[in-house]
Amino acid sequence: MADGKDDPAVFTSASLPSDPRLLATVTNAYLGTRVYRDILHVNGVYNGAVGDTHRADIPSPLNVRMTVPGAESLAETFTLNTRTGTFSHVLQSTDYTATHQIYAHHSLVHLMAFSITIQRSAHTTQPITVQLRTPFAPKSRDLDLNQGPDFQGAHYVYGKTLVPEVEGGPRPTVHMLWTPVPQDLTLRGEERERSWEFLTAVAESEEEVKRSYSKGLALIAVGSLHSSHAHAWTMLWRGCCIDLDGPLPLRQALYGCLYYLLSAIPPRGNLGFLFHGISPGGLSNGTQGEDYWGHIFWDQDTWMFPNILLFYPEAARAILEYRIRMLEGALRNAQEQGYKGAKFPWESAATGREVCPEEIYGAQEIHVTGDVLMAFEQYYCTTQDQKLFREDGGWELVGAVAQYWCSRMVWSEEEQCYHIKGVMPPDEYHYRVDNSAYTNAVAQRSLNFAADVARDFLIPVPEEWVDCAKKVKVPFDAEKKYHPEYDGYSPGEPVKQADVVLLGFPLMHPMSSEVRRNDLEMYEPVTEMDGPAMTWSMFAVGWLELKEVQRAQSQLNKCFSNITEPFKIWVENSDGSGAVNFLTGMGGFLQAVLFGYTGFRITKTSLRFNPAFPDDINKLKVTGVSYFGNKLKFTITKEEIRIKVTESPRDPPASPLEAVLEESGQQFPLREG
């Protein structure tokens, strides 16, 4: 394992990909960059008005390349170690090893750092010099940067973004301190080994940036800056892991997906900053014209969130708090379109107002509002955290979404049910359609959840919510026993991505296994082969539900054409187009294993499981599943399932956990250990 050859969590290569977009990313919840990129981004800091708003480019002091001039026969390796959240570049000769490490500190989120270490291997005494090449210049097209006085040996710039998202909207100030980088570093003749550390601190106030930089210096002084970061990653992995006894490419894919997704979530404990959600390409991407400008879509709530929730409910809560802070913008969106309640934007940034550059999506792809509420529902069912709803704004959001859906429906005298007209379903090849099956089903689910929460809180449930939920049309063809994608859909029409198949999962819309099978059979052959990466994961989950394991596997295998070498960066479309570091696709893939192989389903009263996995997997271990404040470890083989409670809440719930076998009704109480 030591050389990383057989470790599924360590990705090593002798060369870098020719496309710089496919370089590894180093990010935490607040700061992010791609290695060897000249810019970095700060969570929630955007520049530009409405449709032009994008992540503000901040010049990156980390963009440094290490070389040894005139050296012969150097062995060179580039490694992403997902266990320690560290990228390294190693140059090795017979006489010495030079190592360049780059990372975004996981727990001290205002810090990014790199180090250079030179170590002699032979008994030589001549000086060894490495050169550091950096094109860094403290300029930005998105910030009005000013130079401040040096601080503790660091250079200092600060400046405001140039253009607010909406008139009178926020224009944050970014402050940055960084250790100046010399042109070269030399290990002197009498030295065996030496390390040099370079620190970058970024924050939205002078006080915070100086505090963070000083903290970084103090850790460097005691030699524990990198080890404190690596320890934070160790704790992160200890609390959450999916490992299986199966093919190496699958294990590597799982570690890669988890690394890039975990890189984006807030660390445990008090954040000290407002978390602004996760965009499809993460913090390393999202400059103007790239990766959807760093905006937040349903990708976060539908594709990434369930994985985060299952392991780290605190981080999941931070995502929901972002949506709660955007509620005012969502209320304005609905009002501007002539509806009541809250309509979440198709693309969201700093204010919750619609920032999608093309009007059609903001006007028609309204399922996002239901997708947001579904994340709230899953959170409520797995945590029972009533405080989020009673005191922290959750209930206002739930009520406003229910109100929106009621005002968006029109009664059809002819069909005696409610219609939702003129929408774009998740399948973006079609628009201005009536009664999208997915949109209407997610609206129904929003209304049912809103009514459930009201009953739990002893709040009177508006009659309208119950009526609209009961009578909204979800298109169904009784003859062919399948769900048409919308009114007037003809079988065989091409579909861009997973749409109707989402009714089965994650919506868990009631249907027989015959109908579930028919939906899969109907849409699998007509779905775009090179479409977005999360599509095939959802077909896989559907086939696993029906215990059609080989069919599921053939769907999941399609995802591998979206994974690039050597750092397992996902591309949105298998032809390499679209977003890179596509967290949405990774989220779908993780759900296929986390909810597909295990059969986990989050319901109102339980966490259900019903495993099914292919022949080449003998054992699946899922560590750190969170449920009602407990942490559980599932070990699943073809013969048995073991559940271990590894942590219990300090205040035990009224009814302790128990495992129940559905067919026999047999109960097994679960206690810690």
From TrEMBL:
GO terms for cellular component: cytosol. It is an enzyme of class 3 (hydrolase). Residues 284-490 form the Glycoside hydrolase family 65 central catalytic domain. InterPro entries: 6-hairpin_glycosidase_sf, 6hp_glycosidase-like_sf, Glyco_hydro_65_C, Glyco_hydro_65_M. It holds the Pfam family Glyco_hydro_65m. GO terms for biological process: carbohydrate metabolic process. GO terms for molecular function: protein-glucosylgalactosylhydroxylysine glucosidase activity. It catalyses: (5R)-5-O-[alpha-D-glucosyl-(1->2)-beta-D-galactosyl]-5-hydroxy-L-lysyl-[collagen] + H2O = (5R)-5-O-(beta-D-galactosyl)-5-hydroxy-L-lysyl-[collagen] + D-glucose. Keywords: Glycosidase, Hydrolase. Its EC number is 3.2.1.107. Residues 646-673 are annotated as: Disordered. Residues 601-647 form the Glycoside hydrolase family 65 C-terminal domain. Belongs to the glycosyl hydrolase 65 family. This is Protein-glucosylgalactosylhydroxylysine glucosidase. The gene is PGGHG.
